[in-house]
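Two folds, back to back.
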Amino acid sequence: MTRYAVLNALLHCIIFFLGAGIGSFLNVVIYRLPRGLSVNRPRRSFCPSCEYQIPFYHNLPLISWLLLRGRCANCKARISARYFWVELLVAVLFYAVFIRFGGPWTGLTVWGPEVLVLWVFVALVVAGTFIDIEHFILPHEITLGGTVLGLIGSAAVPVLMLQTTHWNGFLMSLGSAALGLGLLWLVVELGKLAFGRKKFEFETPETFAVEQPNPEQPPIIRLAGQDYEWDEVLVRASDRMVVTAEVVKINDREWREVLVELRMAKLIIKRLTGELKDEFEWEDVNTLEGRTRLVVVPREAMGFGDVLFLMMFGSFLGWKAVLFSVLAASVLGTVVAVLQRLTGRAEWSAKIPFGPYLGAGALIWLFWGPQLVDWYLLKITRGAG
């Protein structure tokens, strides 16, 4: 083996483990971001069970989880296999991007910027997908922040948008992001008209609360042990969440058998017959908690986070990727739902949000999308002939 071949193999390994290292950081993001924790403080990762700050030799991507057999070195508590699989997934995706879009090392300055921007995109998709699976939210730091990065990346590397000038790359990215935003926004609005409201009914009283762990982020609505992001429940000024409360406590006051109406601008307490009892501006509400058997919320065809997620796809990959991702996500979601029903696990598929399907659709487009579209159009053309 020549010296060049050895060096080439070494660089391939470095790219794979670079992806694993980024995956390790994304695990920090996936755990901390939806909980309102800083991704920088503490700087070291820590065990969620005993808060032991993990030294670097116990935090080696892929290797440490296997050597420790998925347990904390300090308290022996189990560490989710998700940490290992995220690191492996990002490592594989980084390497796949390099193989698909890279080239000879002598042309690094030509293909390197494109690969770097696509690595950023892949990292954002993975982080958003796993956060959405666990918390049913897509944080603005991922979607809006990612869109900004996509606009910057497309301006810096216009070949992403199949353009030759920085300005045209930016304009194409902006237009594609707008298409992603507008397309799913239309779906959300039509779904609103079609589906209206959704009821949560419980056999026994369940707890509900509104909390704001981080003053710099929107409140969180807690219902029956599940967390819902404020912006996902109350999207429009006209939206309202109505809780039929057996008991509700607001600050130091308590009401029984009332309707609690949550709006974007204010909180309203009504009698069960509908007459107004009291109302609060949100800045005057320190605590809100109670018990309920019935909650009515605005029902969307999908969350607004999905809309922003697709907007981010457009800013990185262009308008064709937007259309393909929606179609692929719909097909994947349908296939998973059918398979789960056939295997008697329909309730499991119902717990998967739409964001992961969109993410999968975007990654399929990234690696094979244009070829799949060409193949499909060719099949149709031959069939028509």
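---
second:
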Amino acid sequence: MDEQMLSDPHSALREFLAQSDFMRHGGVMTDLDGTAVHEEDGRVYVSVPMETGLKRMPDLGRAVVINSLRFPLSLIRTFGTAWYRIAGVPVPVVSLRGSLCGRLVLQASGEIGFEEIEATCLAAENINEILAGVSTLIDSGANELLIFFYPRDWTRGEIIWTPDATRVMAVAAKYRSAAKVISGDVKLLESALMAEEVCMIFRLLDLPQDRAMAYQHTQRNSFFTYPGVDKHYGARRIAHHLEMDLMHSIGAGDSPMDDFLAGVGFAVIVGNMQLEYKGRIHTIRLPDSLALGKLLYAVGELGSQLSAGR
């Protein structure tokens, strides 16, 4: 990868802003966890540098899109209120691995809500394939299996199924983000999944260490969306609705799931993980979300200068 390790990325950024049409058709798209939010002493929050950088984007008339694996209720409960307060405008969101696009909006009640733009849900045949895998695991004695599913109706949040009724309370205590934990056989799970439109399913083998070896050749966790739907797909879909050109946009991510980095003009890899993706014009690496916030502030400064000079 032709990747620039820059302590001061201004030269690459200045070149990108000069070469691209960012100021008219671009925007910023960022992952959250490990990328745009800061973790310190067990607390995860939007840092001051990131807040300062985010505030510059509305001044330029450029959107900042959140592209996250999180479901809308999780976004709202964790960072939504703070992010909306910083942005001061509805916040475009790609959630659930590209399957649900929308906006964080201020509701009449004064609370932050979610407004759907577009959803791509799992088809019945996709769900049947997942259920076949679930049945195979249950038949092999994997009662520690958990199925997390995320309905299109964002108010439903996260629902978890366990085949073991004795684990319901423990699962609810461990995964506090869940709205509900249900238990029963695979038929009950099938009924729940077929009863409403579902955007994403997450399968987790929640195994104790002494049993992990028995399933060493089984993928311990898997995300399922409609075939072809991922964060890059979601990026393209929301960009279409926002009339935002990814080629002229800045993207930031930190993990292999952040495949939308391959679609943007200026890709920012945050942290130390080696990723195969690179931006279509520039790729840089930054150490953490604090540095990303400073980069966004620089976008505001350089963008203002370019606008004044044109």
